[in-house]
Design a protein that fits this description.
heterodimer, A: Pectate Lyase C-like, 23-stranded parallel beta sheet, 55% strand, elongated, B: mainly beta, Pectate Lyase C-like, 17-stranded parallel beta sheet, 11-stranded parallel beta sheet, 2 helices
C-alpha cells in the first residue's frame, strides 16, 4: 500500500514537472487551479503568467470560472479569452495589468476580461511592442494613469471594440516614437476621465465610431500631439471640451457625432485643426467653428 | 473525541474573522456561507455578507447562478455576476439595491438581474459620485427601475446595455441641489408607465441608441432640467417626448418616433428643440419651438 502510494506520488510529480518546451495550443486557468499543473482542462493553472509559459506561441488561454488570474507581460502571440465567465485581473499599487511586449510580427487578443485597478493600479493594458493587439469586450475601471496605453517604437495596430473604460485619467492614450500606429475604437464607452482618447505623437491615426465619451473633465477627444482622430457616430456628452485639437499638424475630423452639453463643444489651439462634415449636432456651447477643410459628403 | 473538541474550537476561531480582514476581490455562491472568508474556495452567500469583507473599491464576483439578496451599498465597490445568471429577488417593501456610498463612492453593478417581485424600486441612489449600471435587467417593481435622488451630492449615472421592463417609471432622476449627469446608452425601457423622467433642475440626461416602447410617457422632462435624446427609437408610447414644467427642455436628434399617440408635447415655458432629423410616424403633436439644434 505504502509502496504503490509512493510510486503514484512520484508519477504525479513526474507528470507536473513538464519539460520546458512542452506547450499546448490551448491552456486553461481556474480559480481552483494550480500553476504546477499542465494547465489542461482537467488540471488547469491558476494564473495567466503560469499558463502562458505552457501555451504555445499563437495559442489561447481560456478561463474556466470567474475570478482573478493575475497580471501578465505577454511576450509572444497569444489569445486570452474569458468568454462565459467573469475573468478578471486586479492590479494595484501602480502596476500594469497586462503588458504586451511581443515580437514585431506577433498578434495578441484580449477578450472578455475585467480589469480592476481598485484606485491604485497604474494602467490596465500597455501595448509596447508587437504587430496587432485586439481588445474585445473588456471592462476597465479605477486606474490612476490610463485605461489603455499604446507606447510603441514600431508600426502596429490596435483594435478596441465593446470596451467600457471608467474612472481613469486617460481612457486611451496612443503614441509612437517611430513607425505608424493605426487604432480603431468601436462601440466603446469611456466615462469619468480627464481625457477620453488622447493622441500624443505624430504617426498615429485613430478612428472612433459608435462610441460614447462622457464626463471627461478635460476633453472627450484630444490631439495633444500632431496625430489624427476621426470620430463618427459617437456621442460626446458633458465633457469639459468635446473635441480639442491643440498640436500643430494634429487634426480631429468629425462626422455624424452628437456633441451634447459639453462646456465647450469644439476647441483648437497652436495650429491644430478640427474638420467637419457639417452633420454633427451640437447642443450647448459650440466653442469654435471648425477651422479645417470641410469633410466632403457624397 | 479530544480531536473533535479542538477541531470544533479551531472552526470557531476560523469563523470569527477579524473585523478588518478584507480582500479586494471576494466571491459569493449560492452554496456559500456568509460566515466564510468570501474567498474563491470559501465563498459567501449574499452580497450583503460579502460587502463587509470586501475592501474599498473592490469587487464581488458571483460563482454560480442564483439569488444573492438585496443589499445596501455604502462604499465604492463593483458587483459583477458575469458568466452566471446572478440575481436579486425582491419582495414587497424592499428596495433591491440601495446605494448610499458617500460623495466619493464609485459603484458598479454588472451582469445582474433584479427581479422585483413587487418590490418598490430596483436601484435607489441616495449618494454616490458615480454609478455604473451595465448589462443589468430590471423588472417587476411597483415604483422605479432606477431612482437617483441625491440631496446636495453630485452624481454621475451611466446605464448601458440594460433592460428595464414592467416597472412604473423606468429611470427617474431628481435632485434637491446636487447635479445629476446621466448617460443612458443601448438600453431598452419598455412596458412601463414612464420611460426616462427627470424631476428637478440640475439634471442633464442623455439617452442614445436606446429603445423606449409601449409605455406611457417615454421621455419626460417633469422638472427644469434637460434630456438630450439622439438615435433612439421611441415607439408606441402614449407620449413620445413631453416637457411637463416650465424651464424643462428636451433636445432631439436622429430619433425615430414610431406610432406614439402623440410624438411631442410641452407646456407653456417648456422647450423642445430639434435638429430637424427626427423621423415621426403617426401623430406628431406640437412642433418644436426651441432654437434649432446646431450642426457643425
Amino acid at each position: 500500500m505504502q509502496k504503490s502510494v509512493a510510486i503514484l506520488i512520484a508519477a504525479g510529480f513526474g507528470l507536473s514537472a513538464l519539460p520546458a518546451n512542452a506547450q499546448a495550443a490551448r491552456t486553461f486557468v481556474s480559480g481552483v487551479g494550480s500553476d504546477l499543473n499542465p494547465c489542461s482542462r482537467t488540471a488547469p493553472c491558476s494564473t495567466f503568467v503560469g499558463a502562458m509559459s505552457k501555451t504555445a506561441a499563437g495559442g489561447e488561454i481560456d478561463c474556466l470560472d470567474s475570478g482573478g488570474f493575475g497580471t501578465v507581460t505577454i511576450d509572444k502571440s497569444l489569445t486570452i479569452d474569458c468568454t462565459g465567465v467573469g475573468g478578471s485581473i486586479l492590479s494595484v499599487g501602480g502596476t500594469t495589468a497586462v503588458t504586451v511586449n511581443t515580437g514585431p510580427s506577433d498578434r495578441v487578443i484580449l477578450r472578455n476580461l475585467n480589469f480592476t485597478g481598485a484606485g491604485s493600479g497604474g494602467i490596465a493594458i500597455r501595448f509596447l511592442a508587437g504587430l496587432h493587439l485586439v481588445v474585445e469586450n473588456v471592462r476597465i475601471a479605477n486606474y490612476t494613469n490610463a485605461g489603455i496605453e499604446v507606447n510603441k517604437s514600431t508600426s502596429g495596430n490596435i483594435y478596441v471594440r465593446d470596451a467600457v473604460i471608467s474612472n481613469v485619467p486617460t481612457g486611451i492614450r496612443l503614441s509612437t516614437t517611430t513607425g505608424a500606429i493605426t487604432a480603431q475604437i468601436d462601440n466603446t464607452r469611456i466615462d469619468n476621465v480627464t481625457n477620453g482618447l488622447d493622441v500624443t505623437t505624430t504617426g498615429v491615426i485613430a478612428s472612433i465610431s459608435n462610441s460614447v465619451v462622457m464626463a471627461a473633465s478635460g476633453a472627450g477627444l484630444l490631439t495633444s500631439g500632431p496625430g489624427f482622430i476621426n470620430a463618427s457616430k459617437t456621442t460626446l456628452a458633458r465633457n469639459g471640451i468635446g473635441v480639442n485639437s491643440i498640436s500643430f499638424g494634429g487634426s480631429i475630423r468629425i462626422s455624424s457625432n452628437a456633441l451634447d452639453d459639453n462646456t465647450t463643444g469644439i476647441a483648437f489651439a497652436n495650429g491644430g485643426t478640427v474638420s467637419s462634415a457639417g452633420n454633427n449636432t451640437v447642443i450647448g456651447p459650440i466653442g469654435q467653428d471648425p477651422n479645417g477643410g470641410a469633410i466632403p459628403l457624397d | 473525541m479530544k480531536y473533535a473538541a479542538s477541531f470544533g474550537a479551531a472552526l470557531v476561531l476560523c469563523a470569527v474573522a477579524p473585523a478588518n480582514a478584507q480582500q479586494v476581490r471576494t466571491f459569493v455562491s449560492t452554496v456559500g456561507d456568509d460566515l466564510a472568508a468570501c474567498s474563491r474556495a470559501a465563498p459567501c452567500k449574499t452580497f450583503a455578507g460579502a460587502l463587509s469583507k470586501t475592501g474599498l473599491g473592490g469587487e464581488i464576483t458571483c460563482l454560480d447562478a442564483g439569488g444573492y439578496g438585496s443589499v445596501t451599498i455604502t462604499k465604492s465597490i463593483t458587483l459583477n455576476c458575469e458568466g452566471v445568471a446572478g440575481s436579486i429577488l425582491g419582495s414587497a417593501g424592499i428596495v433591491s439595491v440601495t446605494i448610499n456610498a458617500g460623495t466619493t463612492g464609485d459603484v458598479a453593478l454588472r451582469n445582474i438581474n433584479l427581479f422585483g417581485n413587487g418590490g418598490p424600486a430596483g436601484i435607489r441612489v441616495t449618494t454616490a459620485r458615480t454609478v455604473t449600471v451595465q448589462n443589468v435587467r430590471i423588472n417587476d417593481f411597483t415604483g422605479e427601475g432606477i431612482h437617483v435622488l441625491p440631496g446636495s451630492t453630485s452624481t454621475n449615472l451611466y446605464v448601458r446595455d440594460s433592460r428595464i421592463t414592467d416597472v412604473a417609471s423606468g429611470i427617474v432622476l431628481t435632485s434637491s441641489g446636487g447635479t445629476i449627469k446621466a448617460q443612458i446608452d443601448n438600453t431598452r425601457i419598455d412596458g412601463n408607465t414612464a420611460g426616462l423622467t427627470i424631476g428637478s433642475p440640475n439634471v442633464v440626461a442623455s439617452i442614445s441608441n436606446s429603445v423606449i416602447a409601449n409605455s406611457g410617457t417615454a421621455l419626460f422632462a417633469n422638472g427644469a432640467g434637460t434630456i438630450n435624446a439622439s438615435r433612439n427609437t421611441i415607439a408606441r408610447n402614449t407620449q413620445g417626448a413631453r416637457v411637463g414644467v416650465s424651464g424643462g427642455a428636451i433636445n432631439l436628434s436622429q430619433n425615430a418616433f414610431d406610432d406614439n399617440t402623440v410624438a411631442i408635447s410641452f407646456v407653456a415655458g417648456g422647450i423642445v428643440s430639434s435638429a430637424g432629423d427626427n423621423g415621426i410616424i403617426g401623430p406628431p403633436g406640437q412642433a418644436p419651438t426651441g432654437a434649432a439644434i446646431s450642426f457643425r
